[in-house]
Amino acid sequence: MENLREASNKLKLLSTNQKNKALVEIRNAIIENTEEILEANMQDLEAGVHLKMKGSLLDRLTLTHKRLNALAESIDDVIDLKDPVGVYLSGQTMPNGMQIVRRSVPMGVIAIIYEARPNVTIDATILAIKSGNAILLRGSSSALNSNIALVKAIKQGLAKSDVPVDAVMLIEDNDRDVVKQIITANEYIDLVIPRGGAELINMVVENATVPTIETGVGNCHLYVDKDANLGMALDLLQNGKLQRPSVCNALETLLLHKDVADSFLHKMYFKLRGCLEFRGCERTAKIIDVTIATDEDYATEFLDYVIAIKIVDDIDEAIKHIQKYSSNHSECIVTDNLTSANKFVDSIDSSCVYINASTRFTDGGEFGFGAEMGISTQKMQVRGPVGLEHLVSYKYIITGTGQIRE
Amino acid sequence: MENLREASNKLKLLSTNQKNKALVEIRNAIIENTEEILEANMQDLEAGVHLKMKGSLLDRLTLTHKRLNALAESIDDVIDLKDPVGVYLSGQTMPNGMQIVRRSVPMGVIAIIYEARPNVTIDATILAIKSGNAILLRGSSSALNSNIALVKAIKQGLAKSDVPVDAVMLIEDNDRDVVKQIITANEYIDLVIPRGGAELINMVVENATVPTIETGVGNCHLYVDKDANLGMALDLLQNGKLQRPSVCNALETLLLHKDVADSFLHKMYFKLRGCLEFRGCERTAKIIDVTIATDEDYATEFLDYVIAIKIVDDIDEAIKHIQKYSSNHSECIVTDNLTSANKFVDSIDSSCVYINASTRFTDGGEFGFGAEMGISTQKMQVRGPVGLEHLVSYKYIITGTGQIRE
Prior knowledge:
The first copy, chain A, is α/β, with parallel strands linked by helices. In chain A, β1 and β2 form a beta hairpin.
């Protein structure tokens, strides 16, 4: 990991033009190595099929000509983004004549620990280099062949640029202990981003001494207020729950104001009973056919065609429920009442709070950030989609003419 | 700690006027309780004398009428500062008509673990309340009586305001295990700020699962370049090392370009030999009378009348030395050469990088932030002095008319 630190010390001194040149070379190398990358990906897919990996996981693991081209194109988008490094964030001349400016700088070395999605290998590398950071990649063993082929192409591209080849490092060792080494290597790593399920995130948070950005666990809620447009509420439920249930911004719990519960539940049952499993509170069970929901159901990120339902007496009970169970990712209120909307926004302590819009919009692309490193559910440094501008720190530069403190 | 979370949920909804009213009441209560606070402080001081506490520590522990008045006045300064909460940081209307705004919000509950300085009890409480955060105070056992009296006054003030009395909590239990409980209480604490020596900071970083802001360890360097004004360099050394050796922004190591070493060392020796212990490299030892410095000396934050000295061949060697030993707090180059100054600023990865000015300026007050929570030496969230504006996070608020993701 010493090589990474050294590479980072060189990389942080490069200009935007030099970094963009490296990104162009990476894009070209990926296109040139398409066949080799797809072959390696095929090995991973065959092993995945053999291991009876779930369809949705196999889909995420799959690279195709079309997907690789789209990834290469997304590199062009990052090239077009403004360099987040070297920005003068503030500055002043002090009464003694000393000048203090605050300038954005790279974090240094970023480590990302992620699931079997080869596209993350490219996204993370591109974002890191553009923001002047060296990157340590630790992907899933089930995508190892794909990642090796991708990183080979990336390094081939870097070799034609001023960015040191050592600025990108792939950990091929599958041992879990390697992750523990990474997340405690404070001397060599400045930031760890775990990206994956709750188990991985918790393991990292519990064991890391390197600062981390927690990402991705989304126990998201939809609260249908007494003054809601119920047709809109049903559309938002359907979009939030069913469009892509396996992602972190999908809905997991539906909270219903008691005054609209009866009407909404009948509409919902009629429309969605064929494609969704309902787990509801006792009051819900009196209205439609549901399995009784447990506390654990309310705490679970199903990532599946299942929704937990609870009828509440008022907005305060809805807020209390969310405060108790939420992972602080994304929550939505459906209402036409301004007082309720404001109360919900002010009280809910989540990265993204929605009024009358789908939680599925919590995404770097949808927010206009370009590619993203994940969705932060913590409060330090960055909340919500983690884009280019969140991968930097800053330093104060103080220029004087011999000023001393009295 | 549940009470703190509940208090935080109420406090975060209060207006600037309501929070400022609470600060006024705290100031008044401290003035009204002056005698009781000073008596409690006297008990701590007597115990400290009995335990043969160092003079500099006793000085930090001491409260007087004058110091308490100054503290009360500093509350007025914080009242005058702009509320960091509720600021609209950015916002846009998306192509589908959905509006995304980013608004600053309190962190929630902040815990501070600190040394025997009763003024920190007031500073930390005031900054926390102004930024809408509840605060858990865990001071040193040797300041316990003072802290109990101060927090009693603070709560007396809060009782006359809209800020819940439970928003401030003092841990009176001296057990070290309590610290471990605090720094792993992710459900109740959003941010931990350890403030003290390297041992405390390391313990917190190694064991915390709650996000932390590392503060205060300062192994600060002064590099005298070949193109330095040597008179200025000597002034900066004297100010940085001798004005207040026990603080984190004091100098610990002097690096000298070989071309100026001879001349500078003689000047320095003549002026400071009576009040400073020199530990130098072999080359230094050939010029002036020093103890030979070890690697450990270069790594040590002496906080005392001792300085480590090393002669380097060029600026690159100076930069490498700092990269190896620095705690990333504050470093200074003395030079009249623009290329050297820029190289130093770009290469050194510290919170505050000085050109021709004393490292002693790294301080919230000197930077114009008012009171501070400490000096951050990490890269996430905040670097350098931690003031009011660094104690907040943000949330995205997305307002729509039923938009769903295609």
